[in-house]
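If your schedule permits, I should be very grateful for your opinion on a structural question. The matter concerns a single protein, recorded as an amino acid sequence and a row of backbone structure tokens. Could you please explain, in whatever detail you think fit, how the structure tokens follow from the sequence? I set the record out below, with my sincere thanks for your time.

——
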Amino acid sequence: MVKPIKPDPVFTPELLKIIKIFGLVSILLVIFFSFFNDQRANNSGQDEDFRMLSSARLYFKNVRAIHYNRELRKDAGMEIYRIKGIECPQNNPCLNINLIINPSKDESYIYLEPVNSDWPLILRISTEGKEISHSFENGNKSDHLRYVKILDLAIQAGDKIEMKSSKGWSQIWHTPNELEAWKTLLEDFNELTQ
């Protein structure tokens, strides 16, 4: 009678010892290096560009908010702050900038509000003899932040910014105080979202 051939075991005792050693070392290395990881992944799913600290919000509401007209939107659960220095002449198009605070999410947003005009906004930035046109569509909070960053770069460079309307091209700001109001609002937004 023929003896049945016993198959070779794949997991020999030596192989099992090697797997245990490497597995244990791998786990210990992961735990060890996790303590020295300075830059952790942001797995919260929240955009940090709009995140606001409670202390910054309290400072804004108690100190800076006196420079703004406040509108409480109970339907959206948000507060809209319009800076007091921007006055649009009647029937002349201009661009207002608003600071929106969402206390339920601890976030702050910037919203561009066309006055006596409508979306899309066609803006022309003139710098050193060159003219660049931008078309701004009414979008989400990230779009408005991107638009404001484009305008902020032009403001810092001292460029001329005009808006197209049915009457032709006109300045966004009609007085130097309006430009200062924009700068103030941008500073307050940056303080809120640091």
User: Anything to note?
Assistant: Residues 54-192 form one domain. The chain is about 35% helix and 30% strand. The mean pLDDT is 82.
